[in-house]
Amino acid sequence: MSTYKNVIEWNKALTSLIKQHTTNSAPTGLHEAINLIESLISEQSIKRGRYLASVRNSLIHEDSNNEIPVDYDFIASTFKGELISQLNISQVIVDSISYPDAAKHTDGMQGVCSNIVGTYKGNCLNHTYGGTADIILTIYSVENGKVEGHMQILGELVGTANARGVLRDNRITIQTDSGEGMPMSWLGIIEGNKIYGDYHVSVVVKLKNQGVKNQYGVWNVMKI
Asked: In sequence order, which residues have a C-beta less than 8 Å from that of residue 85 and are 6 or more positions away?
């Protein structure tokens, strides 16, 4: 479970991450920061970021509210990954910002970590365009909640690339970028040898101007 301190630190870190990207006046909070980049990130990412900011504001300004969502750290880590992919933020900038320590969130993680490394096969369905594809996810390693691997997409869809992600208990978020201007975020729930969830594709401005849409879909893989 996340803590009050983590909520505050995540909001500061995510605001700083956005501030490094924009040349406008420095945002005073996460809501204001998101206002500056709304046209550059997906609708799903906008909703995720505003949710994080609203939880923080509610905790600070509403005396009666002291509940912190159990998946706050997971959602914040996912939003961080989406910002990095969709805004193309350099690793130097990412590393210059202090984030809540993922290693502190270990409830139930060790058992998952010991079993998740391996190769998974399954498929994905693109709801935006209606296409389907077989996928192969290989997880090479998990260290302190950080996932390293590779995602291979076969058939009519594209996006094969190295994969980086974050593991929180039985939830995983994976970021892939094949270099074709369509970074992808894969959000999954781990149940035994199965991982399933939804994904979205954040198209860069150049491709949007050519009529390519942001996309979303679902995915499902089984360990082999």
From this structure: 175, 177, 183, 184, 185, 202
Whether residue 115 is found in the same domain as residue 95: no
How many domains is the chain built from?
2
DSSP annotation of 206 reads H
Reported as a single tens digit per residue, the pLDDT across 96-133 is 888 876 434 444 444 555 588 999 999 998 877 778 89
Q: Assess contact for 202 and 185: CB atoms under 8 A.
A: yes
Does 161 lie in the same domain as 89? no
Q: Which of 42, 69, 100 is the last residue of a domain?
A: 100
Range of the domain at 59: 4-100
Sequence-separated contacts (24+) of 111-114 with Cβ below 8 Å: 112/167, 112/169, 112/170, 112/190, 113/142, 113/145, 113/167
Instruction: Show Cβ contacts of residue 25 under 8 Å, excluding neighbours closer than 6 positions.
Output: none
> Do 51 and 135 fall into the same domain?
no
Cα Rg of the chain (Å, integer): 17
Pair (120, 205) in one structural domain: yes
The position carrying tokens 């970028």 is 177
Q: Which residue has the higher pLDDT, 109 or 8?
A: 8
